[in-house]
Amino acid sequence: MLTALWPSHWSRPQRSNATLITALLLMVVVVSLLGDLLSLMPEPIGDHAAEFAEGARTTLYLTLISGAVGLLLGVFAALARTSGNALLRSVSGAYIWIIRGTPLLVQILFMYFALPVLVPWLSLPDFAAACVALSLNVGAYNAEAVRAGLNAVPRGQAEAARALGLPKSRVFLDVVFPQAFKISLPPLVSNFVALLKDSSLAYAIGVVELTNVGNRIQSATFQPVETLVTVGITYLVLTTLVTQVTAAIEYRFDVEGRQK
């Protein structure tokens, strides 16, 4: 982890911020220079370097948009799942049950092909359909992670805060949710990294992301080894950088409880 590179006398926030900034800068540099770097490779990679670079950018866009929406969706679904309103609990429970019980590929295909048939005015382009499906999918898994975090906070803390005269909204925002978020952070991070890889399923509806690019090139050149190895290495680099970003966030919140 990049946090090990910084001076030991730095505080946890300083090392976390330095790691976060460094990882983000590395990601920008890698994505910006990916086409130039791949252009130095022999064919079929060098001849299609620009396509690989554009596919990698599309993969990142899918991940960032779906991850942000999925996080908000997961928090709202978790709150609904733990609320005292029976209707909200039922709707949230049904959403989580359906999404977690069906394959992501089927959900992507449904959003693109079946939804316009059911709702003719709601015809989404391929990228938007993929974003919606990925957001709904990761949101359901995030909801269970956040719900577990909420349930893990001792009830006595909320009761003590209410006894001190804090309103319910402040009890939740100042006492319950910060602790629940810290507990939920590791699975939320894992879901986000998995989302980067799951975005490859968007190729099924024609989104020109990294996997789709690799599949097209290997079909045209009949050189699957070089092409798919390049795709795999590019995914590995992206997931490594994303993992460094998320690890810096975990380190900032002291998820492991080391206080160092």
TrEMBL record:
Primary location recorded for the protein, binned into one broad class: membrane
Domain of life: Bacteria
Location within or outside the cell: Cell inner membrane; Cell membrane
Transmembrane annotation, as ranges: 20-40, 60-80, 92-115
Keywords on record: Amino-acid transport, Cell membrane, Membrane, Transmembrane, Transmembrane helix, Transport
Database matches in CDD domains: TM_PBP2 (cd06261)
Membrane topology field: Multi-pass membrane protein
Residue ranges constituting the ABC transmembrane type-1 domain according to the UniProt record: 56-246
InterPro entries per UniProt: AA_ABC_transptr_permease_3TM, ArtM/GltK/GlnP/TcyL/YhdX-like, MetI-like, MetI-like_sf
PANTHER family assigned: GLUTAMINE TRANSPORT SYSTEM PERMEASE PROTEIN GLNP (PTHR30614:SF20), MEMBRANE COMPONENT OF AMINO ACID ABC TRANSPORTER (PTHR30614)
Family: Belongs to the binding-protein-dependent transport system permease family. HisMQ subfamily.
Functional description taken from the UniProt entry: Part of the binding-protein-dependent transport system for glutamine; probably responsible for the translocation of the substrate across the membrane.
Name of the protein described by the UniProt record: Amino acid ABC transporter permease
